[in-house]
Design brief:
By secondary structure, the chain is of the alpha+beta class. It is about 40% helix and about 20% strand. It contains 19 helices and 24 strands. The longest helix is centred in the first third of the chain and has 29 residues, at about 170-195.
Amino acid sequence: KMTQQMRDLQLTQARKPPGPSSPNAAKRLYRNLSGKFRVNYTSFDEGSLVGRAEKEKLRKSYLFQSNAALFEAVELQDLDRVQELLKQYSPEELDLNTPNSEGLLPLDIAIMTNNAPIARALLQAGAKESPHFVSLESRSLHLSTLVREAEQRVNELTAQVVNEAPNTDCSEKEKQLKAWEWRYRLYKRMKAGFEHARVPDAPTNVHLSVASSSSVQVTFWEPLSVNSAVVTKYKVEWSCSPTFLPLLGEAIIDKLKNLHYTIQGLASGTAYYVQVSAYNMKGWGPPQASVPPFAIPSNWREYDGRAPRRRGQAEALDHLLGQVKTVHQHCICHEPCKNQPQSRKHSVSKSLKHLFHPGSKFLKTLKRGLYLTAIFYKDDNILVTHEDQIPVVEIDDTYSCLLMQDFLWFTKVSCMWDEILWLRQCVTVSQSSCSCILQTRFKMLLAISQMQGLLGIQDLGQVFFEPIKDKQGNILIITLKEVKTNQTFESVRWVPICKLQTSRKSVSSPEEPTALDMLLISVQDKLAYHQRSSHALSPGLYLGYLKLCSAVDQIRVLVPEQLPNILCHVKIRSNPNISREEWEWLQKMAGVEEPVPVETEAETSQNHLFQELQVAIKELVTLVNIPLQEAKDFRLYSQEVLDFGDQVSFLLLLPPSDDVCTAPGQNNPYTPRSGFLTLPLQIFELGEEE
């Protein structure tokens, strides 16, 4: 069959006067034998194409050419071109795993020529080996056939070139001869690569850890040897016996971007042994047992049977909120104006009228008082009014000093943007001693409703951790929200931030800027803070540093500027789970006065955690500028592991008891380097929840 295909190729080429101009052209013609890829290479004028079918035909032609270009790049060992094609096209568009007319895939050529960089690039893109090679014998036979028929074709063309007189056809035959000579050498190189290859060595650094109460995770590296063929897949096996008899299960890993595997559905409290072996075109290599040799699925909570801290809390709060709403449905508080003091009636009535009056609009300038501004941004653009002002509404024109309690209450309200109308109905202005506080909070709710109505959007975003205050007595509460989609708004429009900053004319002096000018100057810093505060940590176990400082009306916590929603931290490892054995060891370490020596040679999970903690503690104290000798009195928080979902967990490093929270006027013995800030504790808690 292969010989007949070669003869058909000769006839096809004889009918085409131009002929192949290079060895690569001959290879592309050879692949045209595959019915799937046969296309007409007539020159297309894209402008003259009419209709969807014509355009689809052109698209398929381009995709076929990209497939041929990938084969060509692999055969020529052009790594840059291979990477460029893999980046430009998807595996489906390249037909990455569809064999060509020679029964080969790009990965086959790469591994049989022992081109490891190209093979790895193809493997990471999802490339597979040809399904034609079901055994070593079938691969050997296939390569021998390719070599033999290429050699036969070279001999035929050589005879034709020698016997024919010089003419156009002879010149064409010489080009074909060069192409087949090149292909003959390629097949011989592939055959030699296969014959000299050997099975791979065992994987290295096979590490086993406990992933949960019902799973273990194994991680490993490639074999060290570079003399064997490229590894294309791995096999993970597990058993309850160190002899692996009987075998409980196995898994094949052929996606080699991340060399790890989590074995699920295991019994808690049972020891499992794991080994990993590698595969190349010559077969499976020897298995490598894990370190430690076995792991017992468990979780630190099993040490004392502790339930998760947050279990059922969200449901309980939803239920409580539902009960409160039910109680208030027919409550007198739905008539907010009846019980208000006479002196306040006019003020609240005016505010309500202002909210629903058609003339209700954003403010251009600030007078002495409390205001709300909402910053919506998308890429480098910001939402402004038609007067090129950041949207601002008034909260209270008689409020000159924002109390921290009122501000923190506002930040909690930001978790319920959709419930503002209901909250307004529930916050009544009574004649009690707390009426001033309720008046302010009621006005805050009115301002939020006004901002939502003018913008036509409910969610105003996240509250910035501190208001802007100027010397004129203005206080500006800021909310920030990133817009992901191309939304349009009725009363506002998008403008570039830089244009807004350069075009706005300041009405204040540089020595005493207004709150709006201060906002405009610092808006990019606030946007950067907002973006960083929404970043999530990658899965893993982290070591966090807890440092507080107190003021008259608040407690603040030290956080990194680059990730202000998380404590200062370093990563211990990628596995977030602390096993029961590891937690038991930590409890034992916390209960002793003097350090207990650890057997460094023992291959246990406890010893591995001890080594990881040593590295992490040194890295963390260096990060926050604490001399290592002064950190000897620091301690690990041993009451619990802080779990943030299923993928992130924290151990806490604490200063001595007297230094955890620095009091007002007290000298802070540990001054962190730049790159940190302190947030109000309640703001930090809200950010961490998000």
